[in-house]
Amino acid sequence: MLTVSQVNLEHRLKNISANMSAGECWHVLGQNGAGKSSLFEVISGLMAADSGVVELNGVDVSAFPISELATKLVYLQQHYALSFSLSVAEILRFYAGHIDIPSEIEQALSISSLLNRKLNNLSGGEQQRVHIARCLMQAWHAVKNGEALILLDEPIQSLDVVFQEQALAMFKALAQKGNLLMLSIHDVNLSLRYCDHVLMIKNNAIFCCGAANAIMTADNISELYDYPFSEVTNKNKSEKFFIRSPL
């Protein structure tokens, strides 16, 4: 569904190549400045690479009219600034054309109680929940049919523990519907729990890429972040975790 071939962007991305299929949930891991956001910008079509190709279902992303791409591609940017004092309902109506919040989104993010409030008066976590909702609702026809490419750049930043878990569970469920989901995250244990594939980026190039159960190791994570991690398991050895080791 998504093919990234030898993508280069000066000082940001070095020869990035990856193949991702419908129904997969990919987490992108890496240090700050590694190139994660730049990769999302290029895949979304908002930034042109210096070289290389990004294809969605065999078609170069740059060949899609913006109006068509907006119906099949969801992109949550890491930062979003609103210059006007609008209510949550007004924002959702602008992006999606309505305020009928799909049950999956409402269950995970509890948006209905925020509809009449001004976005700029909400807490950081509440604003982030609204932004996730507006992005998904904009292309909901494709999302609910399992036909969307969903790009989320640090979607759980500012969210409390409960909403982090609920949002990630929703994302995983959307992938299971057939959507291709790709998100950046900083908590390796949440990635271990909720994704099936991982793309690790270090110094603007791919460090590791593949099935999460194969490449999510303490050695790889330690080298990725230049910080020691250790692997531990629970008592019945049914689940593993990574902990940061003292220097």
Structure, described:
With 247 residues, the protein is an alpha/beta fold. The protein contains 10 helices and 12 strands. It has helices at residues 36-44, 66-69, 88-96, 103-109, 124-138, 140-144, 161-176, 188-194, 212-215, 218-225, and strands at 2-9, 13-20, 25-29, 51-56, 59-60, 73-76, 149-152, 180-184, 197-202, 205-211, 229-233, 240-244. The strands form 3 sheets. Strands 6-7-8-3-9-10 form a 6-stranded mixed sheet, with helices on both faces. α4 packs antiparallel against α7 (161-176).
Features:
247 residues, alpha/beta, 4-stranded antiparallel β-sheet, 12 strands, 34% helix, globular
SSE layout and pairing:
Elements: E1 2-9, E2 13-20, E3 25-29, H1 36-44, E4 51-56, E5 59-60, H2 66-69, E6 73-76, H3 88-96, H4 103-109, H5 124-138, H6 140-144, E7 149-152, H7 161-176, E8 180-184, H8 188-194, E9 197-202, E10 205-211, H9 212-215, H10 218-225, E11 229-233, E12 240-244
Parallel strand pairs: 3-8, 3-9, 6-7, 7-8
Antiparallel strand pairs: 1-2, 1-4, 4-5, 9-10, 11-12
Instruction: For the record, give the distance between the C-alpha atoms at the N and C termini, rounded to a whole number.
Output: 42 Å
Helix content: 25-40%
Q: What proportion strand?
A: 25-35%
Oligomer: single chain
SSE pattern, N- to C-terminal: EEEHEEHEHHHHEHEHEEHHEE
* Quantity of strands, as a count: 12
Low-confidence stretches: none
Q: Major sheet, described briefly?
A: 6 strands, mixed
Question: In what order do the strands lie side by side in the largest sheet?
Answer: 6-7-8-3-9-10
* Silhouette: globular
